[in-house]
Amino acid sequence: MELNLQYSHHNINESESRTVNSSEEVLRAFDDFDWFSEITRANQLQRVSPTISLIVERPNNLVWVSGFSDPNNPEFVSNCRFPGEVPGIFGFGTRQGVVDLHANSFSLSQARRALELFSNNAHSEIRSLYRNV
Asked: What is the C-alpha to C-alpha distance for residues 70 and 92, in angstroms, rounded to an integer?
């Protein structure tokens, strides 16, 4: 898996990447990311929001979380995409496709949970997480 870290001083197409092999590595990166400082700086610089992306295969197997708002109580927007069952044409039945989930207001713990569930291929649980926001 590829882990991308986008800091507040980066340009929109700039990030730092590294390979990760486990959920533990992903969560350590999330926990080590200085969300308070990065959101504070993003509010000042007005360039990009601090973002962590976890990519298995572009463009249809990835998740990202991006922090904004009050650095003392950050909110996150997120998108998650993975192969799976999606509604069929005109809502009849299901078919294989790309599941595309969005959240506009995750908490810090929900953002962390999204990365954890995705890195563990827990697709049913991740659907519930996004559905309940």
From this structure: 43
The SS3 of residue 93 is: coil
Contact indicator for 51, 64 with CB cutoff of 8 Å: yes
CA distances from 54 to 3, 11, 111 (A): 5, 19, 12
Number of C-beta neighbours around residue 75 at 10 A = 18
Q: The pTM is what?
A: 0.93
How many domains, in total, are found in the chain?
1
Within 13 A of 64's CA, how many CA atoms are on the CB side? Answer: 19
pLDDT digits (tens, 9 = 90+) for 19-71: 999 999 999 999 999 999 999 999 999 999 999 999 999 999 999 999 999 99
Rounded Cα distance, 121 and 35, in Å: 25
Range of the domain at 59: 2-131
